[in-house]
Recover the amino acids of this structure.
């Protein structure tokens, strides 16, 4: 548990707060209306010059001594300069400013807008209010907040100190808005399905477990909304999507956070090739909305998001980059030799599916820098996808890779309930042999399928990874406001 502590400057600020309260002054003020944002004051200067305006924001800098001082405040839109002068405020008010106002405080001011002799648009303060007294001292202005762990643990300080961080999350919001707009314009309905589920289905991942006291039964935070969304397709919806959180009880890395945002899209009477076209159009539109261009920079690579994207069959990609055929890996001894040659250590059972997945993750996907659809996957690693009519050993599935990273996963959905039940049973056998990450048997879903699931295309896109690409960040923690971190222990200090 972290201990509450203040440095000497912060202790004096806290004492000042108590002194103000004792004298009848509330250092934590009330509503303050500003007709224009700081950015708008600057943009509309020609119209507002000489007129009394109001401005508000956090004090970011104070310079000047004696009977005049310049202050910079920042609101969400940006910063503006203020001019405090003894002659304008009078002795009592100016003394209060000098004694009480510090960097970090939030204030509101009134006064005419003018331009200094250096051309800086400035509010000449005639009156001001203290809206919130900052007890803690902000990070040093010029160096900002640089330590990554501290930035993630105290994201509010990161946002105050680093404008780039604020812009990342503004861009994230724009991207999500555009996803919704794009899909709704194409006739898709947004729906919501349970995050607390009795059966954790829709993906191969370990769930978080909780207990529902009222029903006295274990429940699971969802690992994917897929099976609920397909129930809605069975029920009569034809074009739906859900944009929300998933939870997977797995490790943390630059590409993984146990709580993450995904969008899943389902389109009745469509297939995986329709979903390919939808995917590239969606990503292109989001890039234009968020960045104003369909070219991005990621890990030193210039990447074009202009459709059409490259396409390659899974088997061809595997042979090209791993130097081995899928058929060779069906022999356990041969698979061991291949893993050894590729210097890959396996922590999972040496099943065909596990070996293929491991080699693909480590040796193949890193080569797909430009947007590439890898399609037609082996059935062993795709238990929810429809078999190909021409080759029952593969399924109609694709994954999209950009910047050497998986971004999307899509199927022609399996709509044969008999086949689905058999695959669930195969997954159950694997689980009994020690496989932890398998699809759980969901009899209720199979029953729903028996009422008839129309041919359907399904798609999932990782929003966090998409924002990584759009902002050029190589760690998922940079694009999640409050990423998951290990709890600090007693006595552990911030770096």
């Amino acid at each position: 548990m972290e201990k509450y502590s203040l440095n000497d400057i912060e202790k004096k600020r806290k004492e000042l707060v108590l002194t103000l309260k004792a004298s009848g002054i509330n250092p934590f003020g009330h509503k303050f209306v500003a007709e224009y944002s700081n950015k708008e004051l600057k943009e509309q200067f020609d119209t507002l010059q000489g007129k009394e305006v109001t401005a508000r924001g956090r004090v970011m800098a104070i310079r000047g001594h004696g009977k005049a001082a310049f202050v910079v405040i920042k609101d969400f839109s940006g910063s503006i300069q203020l001019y405090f002068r003894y002659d304008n405020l009078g002795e009592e008010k100016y003394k209060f400013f000098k004694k009480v106002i510090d960097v970090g405080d939030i204030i509101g001011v009134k006064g005419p807008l003018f331009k200094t002799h250096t051309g800086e648009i400035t509010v000449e303060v005639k009156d001001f209010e203290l809206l919130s007294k900052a007890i803690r001292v902000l990070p040093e202005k010029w160096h900002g907040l640089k330590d990554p762990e501290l930035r993630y643990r105290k994201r509010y300080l990161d946002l105050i100190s680093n404008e780039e961080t604020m812009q990342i999350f503004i861009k994230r919001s724009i991207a999500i808005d555009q996803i919704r707009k794009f899909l709704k314009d194409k006739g898709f309905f947004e729906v919501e399905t349970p995050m607390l589920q009795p059966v954790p289905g829709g993906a191969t991942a370990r769930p978080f477990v909780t207990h529902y006291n009222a029903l006295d039964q274990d429940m699971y935070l969802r690992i994917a909304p897929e099976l609920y969304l397909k129930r809605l397709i069975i029920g009569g919806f034809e074009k739906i999507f859900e944009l929300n959180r998933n939870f997977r009880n797995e490790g943390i890395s630059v590409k993984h956070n146990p709580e993450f945002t995904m969008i899943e899209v389902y389109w009745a009477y469509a297939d995986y090739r329709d979903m390919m076209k939808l995917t590239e159009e969606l990503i292109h539109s989001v890039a234009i909305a968020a960045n104003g261009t369909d070219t991005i920079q990621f890990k030193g690579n210039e990447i074009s998001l202009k459709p059409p994207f490259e396409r390659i069959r899974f088997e061809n990609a595997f042979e090209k980059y791993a130097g081995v055929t899928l058929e060779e890996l069906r022999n356990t001894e041969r698979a061991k030799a291949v893993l050894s040659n590729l210097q890959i250590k396996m922590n999972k059972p040496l099943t065909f599916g596990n070996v293929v997945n491991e080699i693909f993750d480590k040796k193949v996907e890193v080569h797909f820098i430009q947007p590439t659809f890898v399609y037609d996957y082996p059935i062993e690693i795709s238990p929810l996808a429809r078999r190909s009519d021409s080759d029952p050993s593969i399924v109609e599935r694709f994954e999209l890779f950009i910047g050497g990273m998986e971004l999307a996963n899509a199927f022609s959905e399996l709509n044969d309930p008999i086949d689905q039940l058999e695959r669930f049973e195969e997954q159950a056998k694997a689980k009994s042999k020690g496989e932890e990450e398998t699809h759980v048997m969901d009899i209720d879903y199979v029953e729903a399928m028996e009422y008839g699931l129309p041919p359907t295309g399904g798609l999932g896109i990782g929003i966090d990874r998409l924002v990584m690409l759009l902002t050029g960040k190589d760690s998922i923690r940079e694009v999640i406001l409050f990423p998951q971190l290990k709890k600090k222990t007693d006595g552990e200090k911030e770096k």
